[in-house]
Specification:
By secondary structure, this protein is α/β, with parallel strands linked by helices. It is built from twelve helices and eight strands. Strands 1, 2, 3, 4, 5, 6, 7 and 8 form an eight-stranded mixed β-sheet that branches. α9 crosses α12 and α11 runs antiparallel to α12.
């Protein structure tokens, strides 16, 4: 009797898993089709955050980032030789560390500062900030997997008294952060806000509430264009990164100013993004990584570098004061 019933149960489970997989594929296909036709599907904060969390929490994504970007790093870099011929060339991982150092220096983060990192990832930048400046750091990320890794990193480095990481949303900060409202000297972010440009007003509102008066935004963000978005940009950038909206430089700066911040310094780092994507394409090609839709990740990275050059995407560093 049991032998007759077991196959039916297994088939039932397999059927359910198959239906879930198909629903996910259908969802991705509908969103990608809408994107290619320059139409965004209506998406709630919950929808966006769910997709971002799933993307960054997967083994496939984690492996590609660790191999191509470096251990603990999921942001782009600053390549000094692009600004000064006398500077030596560096690899992607060292350039990412250089960008963190540049942001610490430019943002004037030092001992006694209290930094809120929105999109803390695996915790390497936050731990680097704590190590280099002796500032207190609190990181927030949607991915529980990355939060756990970040706290483990802080503990292994003896930083658990300075660097703390919690799971939560930028647009509705978790209790551990909201209870500290108005006590932070800096709000920090490295190419994380781009996943929620459609609700960046809400991110800026939470950032403002968190900061003391006179506190600073120290933000490095991934940008789009203020002009028409090309189909190849939507295909190779928007689709891969689950973007529903991507602000151009002018629109981005306007949002920051409308939120009550005064921009003190704004640096265009697009050539660093372009060079970074070129290096990533080489690494991804070597390991034959694939994107979620099955396309070669190296091809997506190559086109991403091309559209940087064409002004379709870019990257900035912004220092702004809460007025």
């Amino acid at each position: 009797f049991q032998l007759n019933i077991l196959p039916a149960a297994v088939l039932c489970i397999c059927s359910k898993l198959s239906k879930r997989t198909q629903r996910r594929k259908d969802q991705i296909r509908r969103r990608n089709t809408a994107c290619l036709h320059n139409r965004q599907m209506p998406a709630t904060n919950k929808d966006i955050e769910g997709e971002v969390s799933t993307y960054y929490s997967s083994d496939k994504t984690g492996n590609a980032y660790k191999t191509c970007w470096g251990d603990g790093n999921i942001h782009f870099g600053y390549f000094a030789h692009l600004e000064h011929d006398s500077k030596p060339k560096t690899g992607f991982e060292k350039a990412a560390e250089a960008l963190t150092e540049l942001m610490i220096e430019t943002g004037e983060i030092s001992k006694g500062a209290k930094v809120l990192d929105l999109g803390s990832g695996y915790g390497k930048p936050g731990c680097d900030v704590a190590t280099k400046s002796q500032a207190e750091v609190w990181g927030v990320d949607l991915s529980g997997r990355q939060v756990d890794a970040a706290n483990a990193r802080a503990k292994s480095m003896g930083l658990d008294n300075l660097a703390h990481f919690v799971k939560g949303s930028f647009t509705d900060l978790p209790k551990e952060i909201s209870e500290q409202e108005g006590t932070f000297t800096h709000v920090w972010a490295q190419v994380s806000w781009c996943h929620a440009h459609g609700v960046v007003d809400e991110i800026l509102k939470e950032a403002s509430k968190s900061l003391k008066k006179g506190g600073k935004l120290v933000v490095n963000d991934f940008l789009g264009t203020d002009e028409k978005v090309l189909d190849k940009t939507k295909e190779h950038v928007w689709k891969r990164l689950h973007f529903d909206a991507l602000l151009g430089p002018n629109a981005w700066k306007k949002k920051v100013e409308e939120a009550g911040f005064e921009i003190k310094q704004y640096v265009d780092l697009t050539k660093h993004l372009q060079h970074g994507y070129a290096l990533l394409a080489e690494a991804a090609d070597k390991h034959k990584f694939k994107s979620e839709d099955g396309a070669l990740l190296a091809d997506n990275y190559k086109v991403s570098s091309e559209v940087c050059r064409e002004g379709q995407i870019g990257m900035n560093l912004c220092i702004a004061i809460k007025t």
